[in-house]
Amino acid sequence: MKTIAILNQKGGSGKTTISINMTEALRRQGKNVVLVDSDPQGSARDWAAAAEECPFPVVGIDRPTIDRDIKAITDRDFIIIDGAPQIANLAASAIKAADIVLIPVQPSGLDVWATADMVDIIKQRIEITEGNLKAAFVINRVIKNTKIGNEILTVIADYGLPVLETVIHQRVAYASTISEGQTIFQGSHLDAIKEMNDVINEVLSL
């Protein structure tokens, strides 16, 4: 069983949308999956409640004991954790629980700088686990046909964590499907589906 945590302490980074669609991407690859909503706001749980038929279980664990509580989840190939913003002890617990941490950031200096404290916690955990914890940034909400500024890539590079080659673009499909209790895999959102599958493949190769 492998645990992937989607974390960024800055709100609005797209964690929940990525978490839901990554979980569905893995399910469609034949994996047995569960999504853990660790955000007290419960956005992933709200999405599941809005779904006509939720394709996978969504479990709420919004306590700073995630690393212990998920041990009760068995017989799953993957646990995806949708991280909570701005709550340091929940983020630290999710990092402790994870095999892989994915950090979505928008292509702006403010968003990248806001990850500094969490990156420090991740690096400490990588050291404690002797490199068993893997982590990477994914650049999210990129406007099509625009270049990501070199200065942003330089700031991210200074953190010393890899950046996925795949970027997630700003697409209506991501917002519209989530608001309807669906995923991008329901419908002909081929570009978004390819992005999400590419993200999954890169994450699993870390």
Protein topology:
Layout: E1 2-6, H1 15-28, E2 33-37, H2 43-50, E3 58-60, H3 66-69, E4 78-82, H4 88-97, E5 100-105, H5 109-113, H6 116-128, E6 134-139, H7 150-158, H8 172-179, H9 190-204
Parallel strand pairs: 1-4, 1-5, 2-3, 2-4, 5-6
Helix pairs in contact: 1-9, 4-6
Explain this structure to me?
By secondary structure, the protein is α/β, with parallel strands linked by helices. 42% of the residues lie in helices and 15% in strands. The protein is built from nine helices and six strands, in the order βαβαβαβαβααβααα. Strands 3-2-4-1-5-6 form a six-stranded parallel sheet, with helices on both faces. α1 (15-28) crosses α9 (190-204) and α4 (88-97) packs parallel to α6 (116-128). The mean pLDDT is 94.
- Strand-residue proportion: 5-15%
Per CATH, the superfamily is: P-loop containing nucleotide triphosphate hydrolases
Quickly give the CATH architecture.
Answer: 3-Layer(aba) Sandwich
Radius of gyration using CA atoms only: 16 Å
Alpha-beta content class: alpha/beta
From the spread of the alpha carbons, the general shape counts as globular
Number of domains: 1
Number of helices: 9
Indicate the low-confidence ranges by residue numbers. Answer: none
- Give a count of the beta strands, DSSP E runs of length 2 or more: 6
Pfam family, one: CbiA
Domain CobQ/CobB/MinD/ParA nucleotide binding: 4-184
Organism: Moraxella tetraodonis
InterPro entries: CobQ/CobB/MinD/ParA_Nub-bd_dom, DNA_Partitioning_ATPase, McdA, P-loop_NTPase
